[in-house]
Design a protein that fits this description.
Distance between the termini: 24 Å
Shape: elongated
Radius of gyration: 18 Å
Largest sheet: none
Strand content: under 5%
Number of helices: 3
Length: about 70
């Protein structure tokens, strides 16, 4: 009975690692940006690149998940 249930479920794990890594990069970039603002420092382009890379990875992971 358990085998039939597993066979009927689609494999939706594709892209999960990319989405997770993207979320981690978004959180790191956003926290670094907020700390820079709070400390009165100039926001470095590295923090913006972390955010942009995280968003791109999340989008790629979402696209891969929906194609499966």
């Amino acid at each position: 009975m358990r085998d039939k249930a597993q066979e009927s479920l689609p494999d939706n794990n594709r892209g999960a690692i990319l989405r997770l890594f993207g979320v981690i990069l978004i959180i790191l970039g956003w926290l670094n940006t907020m700390l820079s603002w709070r400390g009165g420092f100039e926001v470095a382009s590295f923090h913006a690149m972390l955010l942009a890379t995280g968003i791109v990875l999340c989008l790629i992971g979402a696209i891969r998940r929906n194609r499966a």
